[in-house]
Every structure is written in C-alpha cells, then in structure tokens.
Amino acid sequence: MRHLLIYDMIEAVHRSGSIRKAAEVTHITASALNRRIQAFEDEFGSEIFERLPRGMRLNPAGELLLHHIRLQRQDLARVHSQVADLSGIRRGHVRIACSQALLPYFLPREISKYRAEFPDVTFTVNVRDRIQAERDLVNFESDLALVFEPAHMVDFEVLHAVRQPVMAMMSAAHPLAGRRSLRLRECLEYDLVLPASQFGVRVLLEQTAARLGQKLEPVLETDSFEMLQQLAAHGRGIGFQILVGLDPLARPDMAFVPISERDVTGGELFLGHLKGRALPVAALKFANQVATALAS
Amino acid sequence: MRHLLIYDMIEAVHRSGSIRKAAEVTHITASALNRRIQAFEDEFGSEIFERLPRGMRLNPAGELLLHHIRLQRQDLARVHSQVADLSGIRRGHVRIACSQALLPYFLPREISKYRAEFPDVTFTVNVRDRIQAERDLVNFESDLALVFEPAHMVDFEVLHAVRQPVMAMMSAAHPLAGRRSLRLRECLEYDLVLPASQFGVRVLLEQTAARLGQKLEPVLETDSFEMLQQLAAHGRGIGFQILVGLDPLARPDMAFVPISERDVTGGELFLGHLKGRALPVAALKFANQVATALAS
DNA sequence: AGGACTGCTGCATTTTTTGCATCGCAGCTG
DNA sequence: CAGCTGCGATGCAAAAAATGCAGCAGTCCT
Fold this sequence. Notes:
2 copies of one chain form a homodimer. The first copy, chain A, is α/β, with parallel strands linked by helices. Helix content of chain A is 42%, strand content 22%. Chain A has a 5-stranded mixed β-sheet with strand order 4-3-5-12-6, with helices on both faces. Chain A has a 5-stranded mixed β-sheet with strand order 9-8-10-7-11, with helices on one face. Chain A binds chain B through residues 1-6, 39-40, 43-46, 60-61, 64-65, 67-68, 71-72, 75-76, 78-80, 82-83, 86-87, 275-278, and chain B through 1-6, 39-40, 43-46, 60-61, 64-65, 67-68, 71-72, 75-76, 78-80, 82-83, 86-87, 275-278. Chain A binds a DNA duplex (30 and 30 nucleotides) through residues 18-20, 28-32, 34-36, 38, 51-56.
C-alpha cells in the first residue's frame, strides 16, 4: 500500500530512534525521510516526534498516532482477509499469544487440523504469561490470546472459558501414581517441582498452600514445562500442569492425577481477543475451532 | 491528509456513480482519477468497483473497504481531537442524530452550555427516527445518538438511559388541564393530535390503545411537533410529547399532564454511540454532560 | 442511426519526490 | 578545551510520479 508508506516510515523512525538509522531500513535517504516526516507533521497539524540531540522520540501526540496506525493496519488486514474469503480462498496470518501449557499438544494439534483445511493460512505463536499476552493484544501484536488465568483486564474480551483441573504428574512408579484424585497436602510430602512464579498454575498452588498455612518449597523451579515433566518422570518428585498441557497416551511412563477441586479453585483457560476489535476471518475461524475443541 | 486522498476519491466515485462525475468533485481530471483508482485496485489486490456501462458501482470487496475507510477516518478524527486536547485546546466537531423531541429545548440548552466552555467545538444535529439514527451511527455519519425508544440493535452501545413519561398537552382551559395524572382512556374522549407513526411516542400510544382494545383515531397526524403543540394549545384537542420535549415555563397558556405509568410502559430515552467505537474527546465530553443533565 | 454517456490509454507537461552535499548543533572523549 | 561523532535540517539538481489533453471503443436510449 503505497499511500500508507508514511506510516511505515513513522514506525521505522520510532523503532530505530533516529532518522538516519530508519533510512537504512526504509531504503530511502535520510534527507528524503526527514522531509516526509516533516511534511506529515505539517498536515497532521502538530509535531509527533521530539527532536533530541541523539535522535527522535515520539511525543504524546505521536504515541496516540502510533496507536491509530496499528489499529488501521490491523483493520486493513481484516478487510484483506475478508475479501480473500469472498473468492473462496482463505489465506492470512494468525498471531497467537498463549500459555506454555498449550504448546506441547493442544495448539500444534489444532493448528495442523486447521491448516489441513486451509493450507494458505500461516501462524505465529508466542509464549506469553498472562500479563504479556494481554499487552500483546493491546499493541496489536497478537490476534488471539489463549491463557490460563488471565489477569482480568478491561480490554480482554473472552470468547471461551473452560475450567482446567490442575494435574499432579509423577513417575508411573510413584507411590501416589494409582490414585484417582489427590489433595494438595498429600503432595507436599514429596519433592515439589514447580513452574516459575509468573505462571498461572504456580499462582493457584501458592494460593492453596497459603490457605493451608503452608509454604511451597520446591526442589526445583523452572520456566520450562518440558524440564518439569522430565524431572517428574525420572525423579521421585511431583510436578504440576493443567490438563490441556498433558497427553497421557504420549507418556505411558508417567501418571497424571488431578488435584481435588476442593483445593484448587478457579483455574480457567481463557480464549479471547482485544475488546472491540474485529478479527480477520482466519483468526476468527480458528478461534471458533479452538473454542469447539476446548468445549469437548 | 494528502496520503489519504485516494480514500476521498474512492468515496467520491462511490457517491457519484461514475468517474467523470467524481472527477468534478475531486478537482482532478477523469483520466487521472481513473488511473488512481486502477493503481489502488492493483496494490489492494482486487477490484473494488464493478464497471458497468453506465458507470461504477462498488463490488462486495469495495463495500468492505468503504467501511474500513470510514472507520479509519473516524479514528483519525478521534486522534486529532485527543491531540488537540493535549495542548489544552478543545476543538472538534460533534455530530448528533436525535429524536425531534430533543430539538426545541433540551439540546439547544446543552449545546449552548457546552459551547460556553469550549467555543471551538462545533455541532451537527440531524433529526432522525430511531431506525435512521442507528443507521447513521453504523455509517459513521453521527457520533452520538439521542433517541426515544431505539429499535434495539446489536451495534448500539447505551451510554445512558432514562425513563421518560409521556405527557398529554392541551390548552390551559381544557377540562383535563388541572389533573395531576391521566389515563389514556380519558384522553380518547377528546380530539387526538398525534405524531406520525415512525415516532416512538406514537408507537407507545398505539401499543397501549391496542391493549385497551381501542384504536387511535387522530384528527391530525403530523411529523412536526411544533404543529402538534400549536394545535393542542389553540384547539380543544390533546397532543402528546415526552417530558424532555416540553418546557411548561415557556408555555403558560398550556397544561402538561403525565399519562399514568400503568398505561404507557417502557418509554426510555437513550443516549448512545456505535459499539466498539472510540469517540473523539469533544463528543465524549459532550455525551457526559448530556448524561448528567438527563440524570437530574 | 446518432447522440450521450461510460471507462480506458498514449504522450507531453507539470508537479512531486528523491539523492547528494553541506550546515549547524549537541554530546562525548581524551 | 579541542576534536570527533552522530544528529536533524536544507539548497539544488536529477529522477520519478501524477496530471491533463485528446481520442478510442463500448453500451444504452431515443
């Protein structure tokens, strides 16, 4: 879109911090870029950059404009996707911010299923904790968020929510392996392998422990669920993960036992997008598919 | 905004129905305009107009694009107004679609009050029935709607709602003039002067009459409340209007008596805007002022 | 059949944008 | 304090893009 090039230039200057650096990215001379910025500010009616001795920085007006630019670009993408849909073609790109639990099994499965039907749709998946996921949405850097226990904020519109039991995971040889359900206090007698504190599961477990007047003292704390699972599988410890992040069939060497609902309350997985935003067709359809999958 | 000129051109062609006519409006040659449209379709990736022997018409893709254009333009206006606000200036333009009842007293008063504080804000007020008002919002032709009994639709976001009694109005010498409240059936014994059927008051009265097993047989039906009021003042008939459309002090020659709540149910005045739309600062502040005024 | 529309296009002209070289300014460095 | 570096701004000529003019082919209506 030639007529929107000026927006790219503004963003480039914003990101690069100076016209001269942005000029390289934009494949244009610094002087030409400079004059386009000036011309834009002229007709926009106010400056959008502060001129500092070391470069350019967006002023408050520029920040407002930047948000408009992103909104506008995203809406144009939606139009494009809808137009493509008119001709029966579905192409496009879906950007998802999601909790790590969705990565090993759930999301790959859903994406494959979707792409089997619409091979021209591409995906970006970013691991985000619940705070970051929502920030991504606000900055138009993701279309969808799929997070466990989002920090409920005003700009998040929930498309689907589903309760997720917290599962204890352990070696198949573990003393507790045969149980159908566990209380948290039973787990506390074994080594604990816990996700790092920014994860929803950890937050829930901490809350429960606090209610029991206990303190969780993990032998290992990690932000990698992969490591968590491996440690639980091969050591004598107990790890935790929500249901959707597990696939018992894939790990016959392990046992997965739900923590009693009486212990861990809350615990929902949320699918949503930015409030008031119209999603591109591809993202919308994918969201519907995910919602259906979550419901079953 | 020079870089958005192409959008103006597209809209001009859409409205004019042909390139040659649009060329006059755009102050450009038909050939130049033609080539700009073609260039745009080229980079947009698909045609947006159907070429008919008698001119151009938007195709479905064009309709989608047009909506984006309007959204985009409106959001840019919001940014502009917010930027102006940053410098302490409040300027801008507020477009209101409202029921006729608001015209004689309420809106002029509110607009004057607002402009006393912010003289650089201008207004457009369009009389619209409840259907048209909402269509205006969808087409981004109004920022706010203030209507009696809107035909509730999905795209309408209510900012404020307030119950409005239906008032019977009559000459001060009328037999019913001294009453504190009236039942509708009492009114039916006199000449009825009714607003036309697209108005909310009329709809409510018809519903009530139907419930009573009666039929309203007006001696006069008009879409002008001015005429309604004059007829009620000088004849022996009874007219109807909602409370906000009246000012007893301005008409000492008339009497205004509320119809009993038991007769006329519903009857709310709604202030709202298009769902999911971010209003310009001026419109937002004005909406707040109106909401406050309605609440008192 | 002819007139009045339509959108489209080749070519010369005008307007706009770009690149280059250069200026002045501010901060950093030794 | 001098010297260096990186910054944005600007004058001027060259390159690129947009425009206007004139004319084409097609459709519709009388």
